[in-house]
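#struct-help
A.M.: can someone run this one for me? Single chain, 283 residues.
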Amino acid sequence: MESYVERPPLPQLAGVVRTVWIQRTGESAYVQRHLPTGGVEMHFPLGGFPQLVGPLTGPAIELIPPRTTLVGVRFCPGAAPPLPAMLDDLVDQRIRLEGLWGDVTDRLADEAATPERALMLVQARLLREFRRTAGVDPLVGAAVRALMPWQPVSVDGLAAHLGLSASQLRRRCLHAVGVSPKVLQRTLRFQGFLALAQAGAVASGRRGADGMAGPAVDVGYADQAHLSRECLRLTGLTPGALLGGEVDRCACGHDHSASYRPFLAASGLSMRDLFKPARSSRA
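D.P.: on it. Structure tokens below:
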């Protein structure tokens, strides 16, 4: 049976890793639609080769073979372990990482009796990687926080606030995130909408006939038409198709609450004020 279970990362990785997960496919291949998140992902199929999914600017469709088990890591924007190229060279790319992570591949094959054990091995390796690197560029980290959907800001105004020119901020974001500040802002705004949708939001903005306009306005879209255009650009689907016609779940049926929890926490708004009880969805 196909399954997908997300969970928060180890506490020591919370500042750089957004979520980790275990995915299993059933007797048939599974069509996976990867969406832009602002960060990169690493996928470790048990018995296969680790792969990096670079920063995405649009949807990427992957056919995962039958009877596959993999563990995955989604990084926060601007946070990634050492990679073979700059992030702006990895935009919309998928590369194999056996050269950098071959030892982990061997250990997953030799030691990981369970996916849970594999996930712990991957996170332990990431802890070692981050302890020996300089960490997140503090100015880029500040920019990412400012570009979250809950606090609209102009890119030029943000650059001035950080003591940078607009071109300097752009260069630093391209280096550390892979995309420009404006592209990151648009991606994070859409991720904020998905966070509200995952939580079953009855948001404080206007609410449309299908229940999507209120959350759209709350994260900064002008109206539902604006949301629809951005959704098509980022996912290749309309909001209704992406969410299966429901504002409080995605069509795939997976529970992504662990992934979107940092977005909800960053909103600074009361869960009681913003959300109705979310309907459960299968993992």
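A.M.: thanks! The chain has a mean pLDDT of 84.
D.P.: also worth noting: Residues 107 and 121 are 8 Å apart (CA to CA).
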